[in-house]
Amino acid sequence: MTTATTPVRTAAKPSAPAVTARKHRPGRRKRLELALLLGPALVLFTGFVLVPIGIAAFYSVFNWNGFGPLDDFVGFKNYADALGGTVFQSAIVHNLIIAGLSIVVQLPLSIGLALLLNRKLRGRAALRALVFAPYVLSEAITAVIWSLMLQPNGFADRVLKGAGLGGLIHNWLADPGIVLYTLFAVITWKYIGFGIILLLAGLQGVPAELREAAALDGASAWQTTWHVVLPLLGPTIRIWIFLSVIGSLQLFDVVWIMTTGGPANASTTMATYLIDHGFKRYEFGFGSAVAVILFVICFVFALLYQRFALRRDTQGALTRMVG
Prior knowledge:
The chain is mostly helical. Helices cover 72% and strands 0% of the residues. It has 14 helices and no strands. It is flat, with a radius of gyration of 29 Å.
């Protein structure tokens, strides 16, 4: 007796190359998308940032006045002369003073006004627009307006006289002892609106439920602000500090138009020192060295601040994006 056997059919397995091709397609597609999206930005960044930095570094090792061939190679002499010069050292100190005052004065003032303007007030929108209006003005217009108001017997002096404070009148832009602080007052008036708007945006991310919970637990308004609002406002405050310090290190427009770094270099900044030597005195090699030094200072600060201050904020943002 014989039995018929039915052949067992097995499903054909896809070949290994086909599986590998399917696996690699998403990776290739992502790389292509990244290239299309980041390509134009990388080209612009390379052409307008990296290439100029490289050219400045190349010019900085020559004693060159902007005309003729580059044949007077001096190596790092321009860097040594800049860092060893008392005027440039004073310029660095001036930038650091402006940066420190920005954190000590502008930050508390911005936080206080932002908390005030975040409340339900009559005419709140108009007040916000009024506070932000100076930031809309260009640096040149701001400098010209304040130069006219701070000139001897100008608007500022007349206001002080009218208020019976004539003893406070000074040569605001001609006294080496106060000119830097006068410029800081103008800079504060110009840029504090940006800090307030930035902090107001951060306050919108503070949940109202947390404030209500703190109030139910018996916390006062000050305790709620100090222990609940400000910690949640931390990432915004750290971003503001970063932008403020970088802006203070690169300060140029207002100072150049109002004082050109004077009197007696009392308000010189690194940027005004650069322009004075590079373009007014035609010391393009030396000016390029100063530009490289300024770039290195800002770059090192940005790296250190990213490493020690912004790292947890960026990690949290990346975690939220991945999740």
